Amino acid sequence: MAKSPEIEHPSKAFGWAARDTSGLLSPFNFSRRATGEKDVTFKVLFCGVCHSDLHMVKNEWGSSIYPLIPGHEIVGVVTEVGSKVGDKVGVGCMVGACHSCDNCDNNLENYCPKMILTYGANYYDGTITYGGYSDTMVSDEHFVVRIPDNLPLDASAPLLCAGITVYSPLRFYGLDRPGMHVGVVGLGGLGHVAVKFAKAMGVKVTVISTSPNKKKEALEHLGADSFLVSKDQDQMQAAQGTMDGIIDTVSAQHPLLPLIGLLKTQGKLVMVGAPEKPLELPVFPLLMGRKLLGGSCFGGMKETQEMIDFAAKHNITSDIEVIPIDYVNTAMERLVKADVRYRFVIDIGNTLKSSS
Fold first, then answer.
1. Who contacts 282 (Cβ-Cβ below 8 Å, separation ≥6)?
2. pLDDT digits over 316-325, tens only?
3. What is each CA distance from 167 to 114, 173, 225, 344, in whole angstroms?
């Protein structure tokens, strides 16, 4: 039996990788598999810096495999196979799934037990997946998203993780109906696009934040309807029982009880942030209002394309700070301090230069 072309003709690639739990990234030469029959190869132009990248480079979730090239908000231009060469495309959080389980049959590849993450995971051929802090990407065409022409590539890159992570629960939990009142906890990379998507769906939006200084930004720039300082007990008390649902984007330790109190009877608190340690869950307030606590993890490919098309129709992009690749370690330090409005995006196309 002949060897598969993927094994015989890998292509040289270049990126930045973390080598150990220090999380420091530096130049790294590696190989991408050759373009298979159902693959798309594209030149990476931009890649967003997600909070997950920070956790992964430092192995804070205990699953990292080194050397690790992060990046799962990847956009660029097709160079081989698939659709037309020159098409604008992107790859988000996953590059593989089994395609035969109930989840895959229902366009929920993101919940497939054999789902393969875009970086730091074992691929079908036994190799480790490498992410978008690199010059080229090869992906099964099923996991490639078409980016509409009217969306700028740099500011649409974060939608492939942050965007779908908030769009999916708004849709699934029925928090997308005009006139509803939805709270968004945390005004960061996820929170700011949650406000934009919810407003485009016709929903009344209240931003809930520990930082009073984000009020002007939330109301005037992002278009939220109201703003609550979560540490202000008078404000929180006045808003008790007013919200149909809440999207909680915070990845740090924080109390859930005050948030549950903001919900109407049968309201829904949906977690999309991933705190390292378990949160305390008070059950009694859930019982007394038949309230739901749920979760959501990005989205399937059909819904991700739907989200990008919705973003194009409503002119939704992420607010970004574009950086060169050699600034990425500083960007990670700033991300720890939440010192970014609201997403770093690496200009791969113009600043990633091979050392070979």
1. 256, 257, 260
2. 999 999 999 9
3. 23, 10, 19, 20
